[in-house]
Design goal:
Layout lengths: L1 H20 L14 H7 L3 E11 L9 H7 L10 E14 L3 E4 L1 H4 L4 E5 L5 E3 L1 E6 L4 E5 L24 E6 L7 E12 L10 E4 L11 E4 L4 E8 L10 E5 H11 L12 E5 L2 H7 L7 E6 L4 H4 L7 E5 L2 E2 L3 H9 L6 E8 L2 E8 L12 E2 L9 E5 L2 H6 L9 E6 L4 H5 L6 E5 L2 E2 L3 H8 L5 E7 L2 E7 L2
Antiparallel strand pairs: 1-2, 1-4, 2-3, 3-7, 4-5, 6-7, 8-9, 8-11, 9-10, 10-13, 11-12, 12-13, 14-15, 15-16, 16-17, 16-18, 18-19, 20-21, 21-22, 22-23, 23-24, 23-25, 25-26
Length: 465
């Protein structure tokens, strides 16, 4: 009987012992073990996001004719509604126990109502705290009944990731419910993706599908390393090439907008280009690496720190930058007023340059003006360019002069071919320095010669008065 009792005790202890032995794989030999401990830790903080948007349908002009409405009334013809409700879904991650949720901007864009559903099926109406189209990130807030803590994921330093690291993708693909897929990090600084303005992504082969947007990319310690954002696909399905916004960029956006602030991007004031093999040879560099500085704003922190045109920025705080997008990302993830150490090559000598980045200045004031009167630019909305405005409208080039912000349809400016982003350089061969100067120079009669800069081209148009 004593041996039978002992056997029964051993059998009863086996499930508990088996559960205790389950652990995160720590070596190649242990890959056969389960990822369940990581999933148990991370999955409760990954949520489903359902959005609702009322879309107003345009009706043909005929239906607005008074005679037509006399017969059909205000109802849309043939019983068709004038508006419809559009629903969409995505994923999100709770990153704070008080209820801050991070997702993609494109998941919630234009929505009138946002519902967050937790893994345990609890539902919350969410409030949009802030959204940033340029990083494709949005921050929501949900309120827990009674104010109790919610499950959340800590953010890990995404710069710690290496190619080959194991990761899990958690989200709600195709609306089937929470799904976990595994893979490896395929690349850690993918820039030639064309998603958002700050193209610096973690690439993974973990299966990511429609509905996974805004979901979690999780490291093996259960911490968040990225927000799944996009896939490369020719068919709409998973081909093993997915992209996630690094957690360091997520942290920057959450710290800014999640605490009631406004996202202010640090400004270096540098324009540049990648160092090619030819450029490296001409500068005496050992290999083509870094960003060649080809433009500096005289008001910039870069000029204050002593940078010059022709310098090559090779690294920021010890992190290499081989493309302009990588440099922009490294600066964008610094706090406003933060300090960075740039590794700069000049004349064959590599030196370290300390720079303190700050918000781009609004100098001169933008003085936004809708042009009116009898001249060819009537209907254009213009403003004085400054580093702050250039950052806001994503303007590439020297932040000076008068820029076109918008053009009214059917206006003289539209007929002239003016486009948002054009810079008005000269009117009748006289330089345009600011909005007030432009208005004065347009006030004449007898004809106008308008010179504008569009990208790298300068266009000149003659208009008879």
């Amino acid at each position: 009987m004593r041996y039978l009792a002992l056997l029964l005790l051993l059998l009863a202890a086996m499930p508990a012992a088996a559960a205790a032995e389950r652990a995160v794989p720590g070596s190649r030999e242990e890959i056969a073990l389960s990822f369940a401990p990581v999933v148990r830790r991370a999955a409760p903080a990954v949520v489903n996001i359902y959005t609702r948007r009322v879309v107003r349908e345009r009706t043909p002009p005929l239906f607005d004719d008074p005679l037509f409405r006399r017969f059909f009334g205000d109802a849309a013809p043939f019983g068709a509604p004038r508006q419809r409700v559009q629903n969409s879904l995505g994923s999100g991650v709770i990153v704070d126990p008080t209820g801050l949720v991070v997702t993609n901007h494109h998941v919630i864009q234009g929505s009138d109502q946002i519902t967050v559903v937790l893994a345990d099926r609890r539902e919350f109406e969410a409030r949009l705290v802030g959204s940033d189209e340029r990083t494709d990130l949005a921050v929501l807030r949900i309120e827990s009944p009674g104010g109790g803590p919610l499950p959340y994921l800590d953010l890990r330093d995404s710069d710690e990731l290496e190619v080959g690291d194991l990761v899990l993708a958690i989200g709600n693909p195709f609306g089937v419910g929470q799904t976990v897929t595994s893979g490896i990090v395929s690349a850690v600084a993918r820039t030639a993706v064309g998603i958002g303005d700050y193209s610096f992504f973690i690439q993974t082969d973990a299966a990511i599908n429609p509905g996974n947007s805004g979901g979690a990319l999780v490291a093996m310690d259960g911490r968040l390393v990225g927000i799944n954002t996009a896939i490369f696909s020719r068919s709409g399905g998973n081909h093993g090439i997915g992209f996630a916004v690094p957690s360091n960029m997520v942290r920057t956006v959450v710290d800014a907008v999640g605490n009631g602030g406004r996202l202010v991007r640090p400004w270096l004031g540098v324009s540049g280009q990648p160092v090619t093999a030819d450029i490296a040879a001409s500068l005496g560099l050992a290999r083509p690496a870094g960003v060649l500085v080809n433009g500096l704003d005289p008001r910039s922190p870069a000029v204050a720190a002593g940078l010059r045109v022709g310098d090559v920025i090779a690294a920021v705080n010890g992190r290499p930058v081989d493309e302009l997008e990588a440099l922009r990302y490294r600066i964008a993830t610094l706090p406003a007023g933060g300090r960075a150490v740039l590794e700069v090559a000049r004349g064959g000598i590599v030196r370290e340059v300390a720079v303190t980045v700050g918000p781009p200045p609004e100098d001169p004031p933008r003085d936004t003006t809708v042009l009116g009167g009898r001249h060819p630019l009537t209907g254009a909305t213009v403003a004085n360019l400054s580093p702050a405005l250039a950052e806001e409208i994503r303007f590439e080039g020297a932040a000076q002069g008068v820029v076109v912000l918008s053009v009214a349809r059917g206006s003289p400016a539209a007929r002239l071919g003016l486009e948002p982003g054009d810079v008005v350089l000269r009117i009748n061969d006289r330089d345009v320095t600011d909005v007030r100067t432009l208005e004065r120079q347009l006030g004449g009669r007898g004809g106008w010669t308008v010179a504008i800069r569009r990208g790298e081209r300068v266009l000149s148009v003659q208009v008879v008065g």
